[in-house]
Amino acid sequence: MVNSKGYRARTRHTFQRGFRKHGTIKLSTYFTDFRLGDVVDVKANGAIHKGMPHKFYHGKTGVVWNISPQAIGVELNKQVRNRIVKKRIHVRVEHLKKSRSSLDFIARRARNEQLKRDAKKTGVKAVIKRQPIQPREGEIIKSQLTSIETIHAIPYELVA
């Protein structure tokens, strides 16, 4: 059986459960609310075979476009040769989790809005542009030692 090309070919490590994550699935997985437009990560759970996405979509992030009683419709991007195609797949909730990829953006947007409001009150222009991380300030470290001790290797001796 050389070069098998089945649906789950070459997924020995891709679909395996994490360390100490085997056994029954947490109920919070089933109680997660998914709404239209939510950003979700597709992460196939090897313990549940029903509604499992194809291995290509494992690790991809998409947007919820449909909710049915058994599955969630997710729209993802797939690169096909020289173009990107929108793909719509249905996946069961066990293989999805809400994405945290946009949390930093949402927090930054809220912080910028607050800065703009404060700037409007004080009349000083707010700088909301992202700045690259600058190098740390230099400093001189004083030694705690009073004297410097030089250490040398002891010559090898033959013990008779």
TrEMBL record:
Entry keyword annotation includes DNA damage: no
Keyword Ribosomal protein: yes
Keywords assigned: Ribonucleoprotein, Ribosomal protein
InterPro entries found in the cross-reference section: Ribosomal_eL21, Ribosomal_eL21_CS, Ribosomal_eL21_sf, Translation_prot_SH3-like_sf
Top-level taxon in the UniProt lineage: Eukaryota
Record GO biological process: translation
Coiled coil stretches, renumbered: none
Gene3D superfamilies: 6.10.250.3260, Ribosomal protein L21
Spans traversing the lipid bilayer: none
GO molecular function: structural constituent of ribosome
GO cellular component, one term: ribonucleoprotein complex
PANTHER family: 60S RIBOSOMAL PROTEIN L21 (PTHR20981)
The family this protein is said to belong to: Belongs to the eukaryotic ribosomal protein eL21 family.
Record's protein name: 60S large subunit ribosomal protein eL21 (RpL21)
Organism: Andalucia godoyi
Record lineage: Eukaryota, Discoba, Jakobida, Andalucina, Andaluciidae
